[in-house]
């Protein structure tokens, strides 16, 4: 064994050396295989198993190889010779692989048989006093140690042979996982979860031993598991190329993991019985034992997090909250145990003992949680035990902090305290409106349970005679009747220790809520109103309090706790812990109110408002947040020389695939330059395919491939492919095409190595464009320069001019130039500074200039970071919450604005206003962050199943997205999610998805309802439609069937404030020729966007009455008779006409040509505000009318109008920026020359006209005209509650 250890030590030192890099694979293989053989030899020695020839061969060949290793260091042996010798030695080891595998099977079978027979003897008391005997038929009467006896036997040497075997096994896993990370990811994925479970088991064994716990049961269990794991680890490596064996191994690994996890009842009860047994000693004096307990706490935390991810259905939100509190408490203790030895040594012995006792109790509670279905009484008892445990941890942590005070670190984000209090008051009013006080109801229900529990503790008997126990009281493998009585006595003793705390809780909490129903709610509300008044009164003065942040941070911390508790109460999700937390928070609110009153009485100088502004540099100049995103985004300094240089490298030069890298420090504008180049007409017309991929520091290869493929086709068609298929699919898509792929923000060469095989080299001028901070990343580098002084000042002036109207004083302009010069030519720093300056008066500018001057001598990256900190400090509190929320998304991830605003609203970030809806306010917040250059604009849009039972615990849920097939429609029990604001469904149902009217109209807080992949059929109950509720909050809804012949108007009136609506007009079964064909919507005074499909209505005229508020309109499969309705829309900015109805050309005039003409436009401003017009799949031949009927038209898209020949005359008089044409083969193209000339005569030199040969479908700009709020836009955001359509139609 010494020879093996020496070789392994040398290999671990040699492999990382640079001169061996070409040969490290052979040495790595030997390291893995020799380690596996070592583990087997340790197993064979411990269990006295004979394997003839292996040990001698390893010793002989190992000594020869070790001599070569020494020669490599001393005599200059070449690396290639060493690698060859390693392969030879490895081949010898491989020759034993079948024998070792068979031996593992024999040992495992023998040990399992031995353990089974031992349990039978223990259960029947049929064993000799001299010790266990293995009885065999052929050797009856002979007595020799069984395999189990050998496992449990104490080691003769100073080391523990079993733990040495276990440690070697874990080293095998580390070696193989390191190999897998470099060469075989499948091997890594297979073994890593099992390694985590084995580490937990090792830590459990060491903890039990350190506390003197009885080891027999644990060693029996651990021996069987460790032996199986060693067998699997060996087979997984040596037979990894045998697919049949590998598949078999993967199933067996799952079985071994299940034998370790406490989810199996026998395992769980065994673990708990070990922990509940009496400790013979508490040896916590040494650093080693501290680490043992600390490592065990770490394993418990791993179990907790795994449990939270896959918690059972009976788990409530409040129970999850308690688990998170438990995690925080254990993390604190682990920090003391693992990192703060000096602090721990200074603690009194009693506290040390209590730390160990708390860890022991925590393990018992954690293991108790691993149950799928438990009776209600058992669940309440677990809740009670967790409640007591949290109190013990709280007391121990308080004792430690008393001895070693910890600096206060608020866990809560800085925000507006007054807004939080308003939110709390609103929720308290909602709570008070409940018919039954939930606190009273819970207390009344739990008083009897707690009294019964305390009585049980008082009168329980634990001295039952042995004969009263049956064989089935406990699982057979942990039955030891004498030990069981001892365990029950220990449990009783622990339960008695909790009696004083539980009695106090019963008298001072539960019973008080019964006596004073709703009194506590009213008291809390009164205290909050009083506190708010005090804080508002001192709003301008709190910065001058001697410790202002302490008071306000305390207020915010208490408010966040209160928000959680009150939310739980509203959802009916209450526990012992949350009730006590409510009472504690009520006392904290009284304390904070007292502190605020004291602060009010402190005499202080109150400065003038202007002085406060000057001293705090707060935002004192109103900045509009309603500007155009596109306008802000277009403020830029055009570096024409740089652009031309990069473009020339892309479209000229070599025919081979070439890589160009834009390199430079952070904030220099690499991505900005790449975007300019990517969108340039010379580039878009040169390449057949263009794709953009953001990489960043952390990335996943499959995600990168999906990003690129999504630029080429529909992302959904690739979403279920694995990594290999995605790489192959991308290669096929690019094959034969001239492509440009942008890889943005590349941090290392590995990202390129992961993707390069998917980019074919066909000598057709394809290019890869990279941006990176590394100057030597790959390819031809283009070093981006900084801005000069003139460009810096110009950029700052342009940014400021767009953000804030009204201009600036001469002094401010001079200060601005000074500040711009100090930014070292970094565009990002200048842009962020502009966002700060736009909110300040001159005094604030002077302070900013002074602070920026202090950063002039630091590096560019550090200066940019400091400017970002300065910008964050100047944000109002309500925007700080919003910017911090971006941390929930991946770096460089594009975020749909619509989705983001819905999430902000669901989080309660918006300040309510009577004049504007929450969505408008949220969009204003986004604009404010863009103005400050803290958020980058990505893609711009023009103008602008049954569900799982776990949702019972999500009654507070405000944002829910479901992915899957809802077999029986949207379940009626959805109405139980009373706080739901956003509900999204992505499904595949060509018929329709039913939603009961009563269910919909009971969801009073619903703001957004969207189904993608199906139409929503609302089951109308006409008899009670008028008396049913109104959804005043509903803001967006798609896509709903509207049935002619039913109460369309009555239904739509239930959504009086809707802003965005998509619907499909359908004829109901009751519809006849005499039925009303008028669709009335003109009462929807807030409606801004409407998409209407008329394809399911027969060709009789339908009359539409639309509201004048409409800004965006899409009509699909429409009749020309409806067009006259559009003339009545004075605010219409976006119009899409898609697919003219079938058969329409056959009506009216016999002159086909005349009937296919778009009707003459009326004189005057036919579409006075129209900016965007798209005509798709229409049958028109000549578009009559005059161009000046569109005085504000900026973009015109013509798609698939195959008969179209002529455009309106004088169209060039419109302020056009873009005309885009697809699949219009008969269109006279000479008209565009006239249009362009007219535009130039009017001073417009920027008109772009994109024709079929100049634009590919994959890179079309027409994507910009998307509606901007389709559910598919938030495809990456789905909280994927996957369904298979097999469950019943109930929620949850």
From TrEMBL:
The keyword Cytoplasm applies. Keywords: ATP-binding, Coiled coil, Cytoplasm, Hypersensitive response, Leucine-rich repeat, Nucleotide-binding, Plant defense, Repeat. SUPFAM superfamilies: L domain-like, P-loop containing nucleoside triphosphate hydrolases. Residues 889-940 form the Disease resistance protein winged helix domain. Residues 145-386 form the Late blight resistance protein R1A-like N-terminal domain. This is Late blight resistance protein homolog R1B-23. GO terms for cellular component: cytoplasm. The gene is LOC113741629. Residues 644-799 form the NB-ARC domain. Its main location: cytoplasm. Belongs to the disease resistance NB-LRR family. It holds the Pfam family NB-ARC. It is found in: Cytoplasm. GO terms for biological process: plant-type hypersensitive response. One of its GO terms (molecular function) is ADP binding. Residues 478-534 form a coiled coil. Confers resistance to late blight (Phytophthora infestans) races carrying the avirulence gene Avr1. Resistance proteins guard the plant against pathogens that contain an appropriate avirulence protein via an indirect interaction with this avirulence protein. That triggers a defense system including the hypersensitive response, which restricts the pathogen growth. InterPro entries: Apaf_helical (IPR042197), Disease_R_plants (IPR044974), LRR_dom_sf (IPR032675), NB-ARC (IPR002182), P-loop_NTPase (IPR027417), R1A-like_N (IPR021929), WH-like_DNA-bd_sf (IPR036388), WHD_DRP (IPR058922).
């Amino acid at each position: 064994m010494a020879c093996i250890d020496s070789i392994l030590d040398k290999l671990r030192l040699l492999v990382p050396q640079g001169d061996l890099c070409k040969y490290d694979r052979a040495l790595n293989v030997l390291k893995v295989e020799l380690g596996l053989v070592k583990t087997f030899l340790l197993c064979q020695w411990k269990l006295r198993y004979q394997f003839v020839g292996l040990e001698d061969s390893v010793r002989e060949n190992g000594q020869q190889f070790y001599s070569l290793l020494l020669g490599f260091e001393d005599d200059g042996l070449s690396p290639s010779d060493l690698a060859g010798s390693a392969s030879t030695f490895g081949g010898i080891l491989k020759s034993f692989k079948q024998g070792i595998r068979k031996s593992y099977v024999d040992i495992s079978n023998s040990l399992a048989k031995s353990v089974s027979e031992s349990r039978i003897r223990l259960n029947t008391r049929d064993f000799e006093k001299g010790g266990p005997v293995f009885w065999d038929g052929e050797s009856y009467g002979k007595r020799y140690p069984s395999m189990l006896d050998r496992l449990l036997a104490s080691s003769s040497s100073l080391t523990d042979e079993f733990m040495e075997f276990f440690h070697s096994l874990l080293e095998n896993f580390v070696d193989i996982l390191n190999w897998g990370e470099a060469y075989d990811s499948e091997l890594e994925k297979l073994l890593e979860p099992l390694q985590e479970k084995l580490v937990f088991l090792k830590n459990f064994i060491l903890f039990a031993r350190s506390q003197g716990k009885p080891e027999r049961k644990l060693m029996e269990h651990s021996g069987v598991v460790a032996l199986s794991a060693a067998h699997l680890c060996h087979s997984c490596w040596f037979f990894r190329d045998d697919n049949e064996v590998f598949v078999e191994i993967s199933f067996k690994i799952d079985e071994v993991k299940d034998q370790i996890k406490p989810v199996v009842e026998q395992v769980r009860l065994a673990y708990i019985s070990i922990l509940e047994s009496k400790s013979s000693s508490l040896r916590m004096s040494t650093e080693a034992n501290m680490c043992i307990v600390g490592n065990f706490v770490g394993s418990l935390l791993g179990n907790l997090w795994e449990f939270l991810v896959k918690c059972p259905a009976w788990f409530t939100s409040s129970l999850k909250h308690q688990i998170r509190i438990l995690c925080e408490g254990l993390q604190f203790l682990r920090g003391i145990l693992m990192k703060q030895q000096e602090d721990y040594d200074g603690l009194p012995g009693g506290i040390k003992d209590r730390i160990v006792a708390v860890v022991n109790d925590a393990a018992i509670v954690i293991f108790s949680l691993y149950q799928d279905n438990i009776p209600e009484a058992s669940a309440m008892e677990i809740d009670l035990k967790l409640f007591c445990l949290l109190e013990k941890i709280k007391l121990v942590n308080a004792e430690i902090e008393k001895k070693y005070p910890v600096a206060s670190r608020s866990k809560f984000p800085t925000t507006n305290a007054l807004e939080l209090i308003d939110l709390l008051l609103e929720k308290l009013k909602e709570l008070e409106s409940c018919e039954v006080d939930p606190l009273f109801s819970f207390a009344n229900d739990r008083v009897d349970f707690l009294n019964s529990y305390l009585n049980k503790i008082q009168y329980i008997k634990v001295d039952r005679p042995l004969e009263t126990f049956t064989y089935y009281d406990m699982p057979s493998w942990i039955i030891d009747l004498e030990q069981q009585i001892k365990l029950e006595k220990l449990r009783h003793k622990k339960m008695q220790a909790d009696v004083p705390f539980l009695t106090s809780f019963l008298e001072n909490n539960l019973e008080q809520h019964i006596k004073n129903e709703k009194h506590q709610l009213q008291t809390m509300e009164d205290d909050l109103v009083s506190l708010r008044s005090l804080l508002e009164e001192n709003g301008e003065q709190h910065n001058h309090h001697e410790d202002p942040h302490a008071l306000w941070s305390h207020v915010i911390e208490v408010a966040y706790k209160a928000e959680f508790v009150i939310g739980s109460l509203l959802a009916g999700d209450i526990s012992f812990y949350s009730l006590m937390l409510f009472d504690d928070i009520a006392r904290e609110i009284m304390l904070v109110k007292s502190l605020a009153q004291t602060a009010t009485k402190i005499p202080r100088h109150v400065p003038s408002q202007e002085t406060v502004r000057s001293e705090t540099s707060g935002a004192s100049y109103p900045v509009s947040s309603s500007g155009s995103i596109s306008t802000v985004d277009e403020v830029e300094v055009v570096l024409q020389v740089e652009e031309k240089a990069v473009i020339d490298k892309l479209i000229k030069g070599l025919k081979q695939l070439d890589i160009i890298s834009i390199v430079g420090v952070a904030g220099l504008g690499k991505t900005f330059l790449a975007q300019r180049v990517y969108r340039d007409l010379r580039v878009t017309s040169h390449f057949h395919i263009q794709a953009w991929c953001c990489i960043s520091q952390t990335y996943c290869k499959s995600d990168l491939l999906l990003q690129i493929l999504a630029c080429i086709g529909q992302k959904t068609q690739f979403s279920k492919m694995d990594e290999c298929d995605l790489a192959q699919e991308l290669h096929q898509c690019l094959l034969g095409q001239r492509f440009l792929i942008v890889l943005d923000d590349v941090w290392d060469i590995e990202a390129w190595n992961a993707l390069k095989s998917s980019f074919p080299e066909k000598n057709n001028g394809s290019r890869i464009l990279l941006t990176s901070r590394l100057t030597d990343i790959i390819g031809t580098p283009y070093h981006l320069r900084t801005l000069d002084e003139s460009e810096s000042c110009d950029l700052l002036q342009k940014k400021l001019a767009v953000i804030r109207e009204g201009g600036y004083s001469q002094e401010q302009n001079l200060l601005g130039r000074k500040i711009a010069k100090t930014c070292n030519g970094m565009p990002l720093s200048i842009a962020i500074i502009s966002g700060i300056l736009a909110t300040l008066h001159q005094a604030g500018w002077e302070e900013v200039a002074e602070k920026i001057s202090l950063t002039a001598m630091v590096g560019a990256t550090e200066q940019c970071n400091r400017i970002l900190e300065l910008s964050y400090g100047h944000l109002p509190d309500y925007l700080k919450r919003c910017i911090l929320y971006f941390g929930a998304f991946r770096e460089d991830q594009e975020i749909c604005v619509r989705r983001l605003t819905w999430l902000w609203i669901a989080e309660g970030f918006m300040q309510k206003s009577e004049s504007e809806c929450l969505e408008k306010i949220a969009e204003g917040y986004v604009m404010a962050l863009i103005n400050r250059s803290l958020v980058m604009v990505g893609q711009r849009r023009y103008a602008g199943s049954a569900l799982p039972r776990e949702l019972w615990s999500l009654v507070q849920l405000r944002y829910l997205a479901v992915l899957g097939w809802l077999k029986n429609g949207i379940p009626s029990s959805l109405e139980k999610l009373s706080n739901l604001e956003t509900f999204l469904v992505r499904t595949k149902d060509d018929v329709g998805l039913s939603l009961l009217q009563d269910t919909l109209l009971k969801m009073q807080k619903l703001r957004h309802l969207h189904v993608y992949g199906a139409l929503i059929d609302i089951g109308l109950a006409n008899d009670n439609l008028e008396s049913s509720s109104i959804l005043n909050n509903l803001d967006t809804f798609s896509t709903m069937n509207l049935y002619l012949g039913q109460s369309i108007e009555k239904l739509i009136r239930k959504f009086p404030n809707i802003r965005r609506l998509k619907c499909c007009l359908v004829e109901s079964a009751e519809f006849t020729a005499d039925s009303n064909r008028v669709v009335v919507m003109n009462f929807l005074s807030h409606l801004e966007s409407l998409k209407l499909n008329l394809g399911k209505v027969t060709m009789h005229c339908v009359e539409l009455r639309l509201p004048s508020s409409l800004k965006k309109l899409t009509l699909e499969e429409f009749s020309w008779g409806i067009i006259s309705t559009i003339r009545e829309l004075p605010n219409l900015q976006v119009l899409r006409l898609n697919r003219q109805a079938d058969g329409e050309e056959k009506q009216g005039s016999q002159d086909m040509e005349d009937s296919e003409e778009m009707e003459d436009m009326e004189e005057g401003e036919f579409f006075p505000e129209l900016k965007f017009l798209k005509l798709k799949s229409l049958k028109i031949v000549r578009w009559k009318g005059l161009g000046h009927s569109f005085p504000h038209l900026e973009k015109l898209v013509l798609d698939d109008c195959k008969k179209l020949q002529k455009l309106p005359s004088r169209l060039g008089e419109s302020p056009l920026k873009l005309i885009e044409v697809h699949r219009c083969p008969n269109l006279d193209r000479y008209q565009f020359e006239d249009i362009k000339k007219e535009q130039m005569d009017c001073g417009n030199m920027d008109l772009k006209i994109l024709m079929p040969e100049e634009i590919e479908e994959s890179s079309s700009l027409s994507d910009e005209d998307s509606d901007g709020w389709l559910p598919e836009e938030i495809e990456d955001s789905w909280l994927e509650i996957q369904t298979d359509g097999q469950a019943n139609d109930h929620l949850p």
